[in-house]
C-alpha cells in the first residue's frame, strides 16, 4: 500500500522568470544579428574599424525567426519579436490557439526539421527530456540555412556540443548565443567559451532582480498557505498527494496559450 502524507507536495513559483528569459533571448538575437560583441570589443581595445564590423551586421527586420516550443517563454519571445516586423515561425507539440497564431501572424511547423530549414534565427525554448536531448545534432544543424543563428536559453544538452562547434567553425552557423551549458558551471576550457562568433553568458537570464523579487513573494505565499492549511494555487503545484499534477507534464496548457485540448 502506498502511503502519502496529504500535506506533502512539490511546487514552484511558476512563470516567475519567463519574461526575464524571453527578454534575454531577444537581446541575444539582436547581439548576434547586429554583430554587437565584436563592435563592443573594438571599443574596449581602442580600435575603430567600421567596415570589419558592418561586414557581418544585419537588420532583424524581414528575417525568418522561429522558436522550438511556444510555451511560456517561447510565446513571450514571439510576442516581443512581433514589432520588429519579422516572419515568425514555431514548432510545439501543442498548437497555439488560432487567435494567437493569427494575432502574431506566426507560421506553425509540424516538426523541428521543417522550421530549421527556413529560419535565419532559431531560438530553443523547449524542456530537456529524452526526445530533446541532442535534438540539435550534426544532422539537424546541417538542415539549417547557411549563415543562420541559434539562441538557446533552454538547456545546454539540447545541443550536441561538438557538432555546434564544428558548424560555427565551418561558418555554417553564423553565431550562437544562450546562457545554458552542460555541465554547469561550464569548465574553463568548455569549447563554447572559445568558439568563434558567440554571444554566450553564464546562466543568469532568469535571475534578474525583478525575477528574484517574484520568486521571493511566491515562496512566501506558498509557505504561508502551507502553515495556514490553505490550498496552493493550482498552477504552482507539480506533485500533490503523490501524483504529478503539473499541466506541463500532462496535456497542453491553455494558460500558456495552447489550444484547449480537453
Ligand atoms: N535560462 C534560464 O534561466 C531558464 C531556462 N528555462 C528553460 O526553458 C524551458 C521552457 O520554459 P517554459 O517556457 O517556462 O516552459 P513551458 O512548460 O511553459 O513550455 C514548454 C513548451 O515546450 C513544449 N515542448 C515539450 N517538448 C517539446 C518537444 N519535444 N518539442 C517541441 N516542444 C516541446 C511544450 O508543449 C510547451 O509548450 C524550460 O524547460 C527550461 O529548460 C526556464 C526558465 C529559466
From TrEMBL:
InterPro entries: D-isomer_DH_CS, D-isomer_DH_CS1, D-isomer_DH_NAD-bd, NAD(P)-bd_dom_sf. The keyword Transcription does not apply. Coiled coil: none annotated. Keywords: NAD, Oxidoreductase. Residues 26-204 form the D-isomer specific 2-hydroxyacid dehydrogenase NAD-binding domain. GO terms for molecular function: formate dehydrogenase (NAD+) activity; NAD binding. GO terms for biological process: monocarboxylic acid metabolic process. This is D-isomer specific 2-hydroxyacid dehydrogenase NAD-binding domain-containing protein. The lineage of its organism: Eukaryota, Metazoa, Spiralia, Gnathifera, Rotifera.
